[in-house]
Amino acid sequence: MSSQFAARAPSSAPLDAPSVADAAELAHAASVAGAKAASAARDAAGRARAAAPARLRRILLALLLPVTALLAIELAVRTGLIPANLLPAPTQIIDTMRDLGAQGLLSHITASTLRVAAGFASGAALAVLLGATVGLSRHAEAMLDPTFQALRAIPSLAWVPLLLLWLGIDEAPKIVLIAIGAFFPIYMGVASGIRGVDRKLIEVARLYRLSNVALTKRVLLPAALPAILTGLRNGLSLAWMFMVAAELIAASKGLGYLLSDGRETSRADIVLAAIALLAILGKISDTLMAIIERRSLAWRDSYA
Amino acid sequence: MSIALDIHVKEKRYGTRTVLRDVSLQLQEAEVVSLIGASGCGKSSLLSIASGLDRDFSGEIRLKGTPLNGASSDIGFIFQEPRLFPWLTVAENVAFSGDNPQLVTRLLAEVGLQGHAGALPKQLSGGQAQRAAIARGLFTQPRVLLLDEPFSAVDAFTRMKLQDLLLKVALEHRLTVLLVTHDIDEALYLSDRIVLLDGGLTEFHPGPAPRKRGDVDAVRLKAAILDSLQV
């Protein structure tokens, strides 16, 4: 009887909605203020503790497949299951790299990297400029975009004979080919990024009577940054691909040259050493881009 | 009392569809008016026209007697969503239209966001983000504040807190407020005058402030409004 009464008592109290809301928010504020400092410290320490093993685990998981594959190949080659002249053992490839290192491997790597850098930089500069123009202006889009889409459909290697005819076999055709490769993903990223900016944010800018220049600088470009950075990242990986295409055709230096040299001298170990180096360099440059992406998009409220 | 905002819309069309015809609404200085109506009745269009954002209509808007040509710093606008720029901090969002650190600090304190100046929008709750949006709306020190269903996306308790915040800032800044809402209780609690848009305009007067939520008179008036809406 009495317990029933006690259970009912609270509900018979007059319910004043604002004061309940007040109390809820006050209580929340107080608990937040009290717990904030302590929990911040706890969180930081906890994250640091939890992050180390988690990261280690991820690295180990990522290494599992390549290490197993390399061990299997090594075993297969040493037992004679696979002929060593077609697929050299990983240890032999490392030896080859060491030998190449003594014979100027670094200059091949430098030559390729510089070509990628020059081609990517010029392609990216042009792509950002034209992508922004097309993204910002309906007229420019109507005039330029159909042509660019047609040019985009041309396979990269189709450009090679023309570039050789026009620019000879020196550095110029290689850098132009790399620039062409990097151009399209960046152009697409910038143009579609600007086009895709939330109309609602633009309305806010119009409320504050921003000029077109200010609108571009303060709203459109920051809002399009995720798409622009994705374009740059894709453009960079294409730049590496186009660099190989360019060097396979005519070069006396570079990783692409090593590839064709290895084929001509039937040295599968050299070919594989060059491929491994391409993988490493590509991964390094992509990781750098990913770091830039993560740092400049820290404001994003997204899954990853 | 003088007229702060004089809205006269002869016609507003989207293509061949007319959404507003011969709508006139005068807002007295420091008056809080709610605009209600069924969805699609044109209340958001009317608000957008009143803000100067939408100029594709026939008619005229006068702000303190002067014709309005486009958006004005004298008119603040709060959207249904906070619409904060996600790459800017709360303080940078509030000061989007200028540079006045003292005012930012004061406004953040006023809306209860002191200590959140450096936070990014993603770190705010829905209610906090809308508070930041209100601070941004007040940054230009407007005389008129227009709000388009500003509290419809937050939970009930937060909504009540935000309604009380709106009443507080309206009083402190002597703002003329035009609030579009679909929440009749909100309109009854906040407004000096409720305007029902349904082809023409019908007015209701909830009585003098301060009003109490769930007041007997308010319940009676709510029934009358629902009747007019044929709900």
Task: Give a structural overview.
Chain A has 304 residues and is mainly α. Chain A has helices at 2-12, 17-78, 90-102, 105-136, 138-152, 159-167, 171-195, 199-207, 212-249, 255-264, 268-296. Chain A is flat. Mean pLDDT of chain A is 86; it is low at 1-37. In chain B, the strands form 2 sheets. Chain B has a 6-stranded mixed β-sheet, with helices on both faces. The longest helix of chain B has 17 residues, at 156-172. The A-B interface holds A 17-18, 20-22, 24-25, 200-201, 203-204, 206-209, 219, 222-223, 225, 298-301 and B 51, 53, 70-71, 73, 77, 79, 81, 83, 85-88, 96-97, 120-122, 140, 157-158, 160-161, 164, 213-214.
List the helices and strands and how they pair.
The complex is a heterodimer of chains A (304) and B (231).
Chain A: H1 2-12, H2 17-78, H3 90-102, H4 105-136, H5 138-152, H6 159-167, H7 171-195, H8 199-207, H9 212-249, H10 255-264, H11 268-296
Chain B: E1 3-14, E2 17-28, E3 32-36, H1 43-51, E4 58-63, E5 66-67, E6 75-78, H2 90-94, H3 101-110, H4 126-139, E7 144-148, H5 156-172, E8 176-180, H6 184-190, E9 193-198, E10 200-204, H7 216-229
Helix pairs in contact in B: 3-4, 4-5, 6-7
Largest sheet of chain A: none
- Which class of secondary structure composition applies to the elements of chain B? alpha/beta
User: Which structural class is indicated by helix and strand composition of chain A?
Assistant: mainly alpha
Q: How many helical stretches of chain B? A: 7
Pick out the low-confidence regions of chain A.
1-37
In short:
The complex is a heterodimer of chains A (304) and B (231). In chain A, 83% of the residues lie in helices and 0% in strands.
Which features would summarize this protein structure in a list?
heterodimer, A: 304 residues, mainly alpha, 11 helices, flat, disordered N terminus, B: 231 residues, alpha/beta, 6-stranded mixed β-sheet, 4-stranded antiparallel β-sheet, 7 helices, 27% strand, globular
